[in-house]
Amino acid sequence: MDASAENTHDFRVKRAATTMRQSVTESIRQAIALGHYKAGDRMPERDLCEMTGVSRTLVREALRQLESEGLITVVAHKGPTVARISAREANGVYEVREVLESLAAKLFAENATDKDIRDIEAALERIREAYLHGNVLDRLAAKNHFYDCLIAGSGNEALGQSLYMINSRTMILRGRSLQMPNRWKESLKELSALIEALKKRDPEDAHRLACHHVRKAAESAMQSFSEDEA
User: Fold this and answer.
1) Where are the chain's structural domains?
2) What sign for the dihedral angle of Cα 139, 10, 69, 20?
3) What is the pLDDT of residue 229?
4) pTM of the predicted model as reported, rounded to 2 decimal places
């Protein structure tokens, strides 16, 4: 998978963001998602400090968090390297996503307030704008915001926590999926259909369309694994 055209991003951390450790962690996570660091690549602390513009202490804290998420491995005398996600592992992530996201859509249709509906419609517009005029990083941020709105409207905090647990690997796979030709156009159509079901407060149709969206994303991502192997 060649993502070189999309990998000229600035990963320097903006100091006004939440906490510095969270910001550094997110920046390195995005660098992995966009292929700036690929599976098996070494991640020298010095390089990460230069990339993010922060101290080695903050970089080390971020690396410990990413190691706990399974995104990096630390090998003795070699340092941190990007973990490899196999096709089988990726398929497992999508199976879990399908269950959780379709449940979130069903609960959103049943429980969402009028404000939740407006928020998720605005989130879809943000996705559309990112797809049309943004880069992969913008698209990932927009998709993350969309799912934040979906979880908020579902009214199920435990569901949100469960999705958060697999968010890192989901983000990596979403980066692969969105870099496949024309996937973003299909994704936008699928999400638009899902929004209509949510607005109609039709839980069964929302569940079905959320399942369909994850399955199509899985097909696209698994195709990228096939191309890597080739």
Assistant:
1) 4-82, 87-229
2) negative
3) 56
4) 0.77
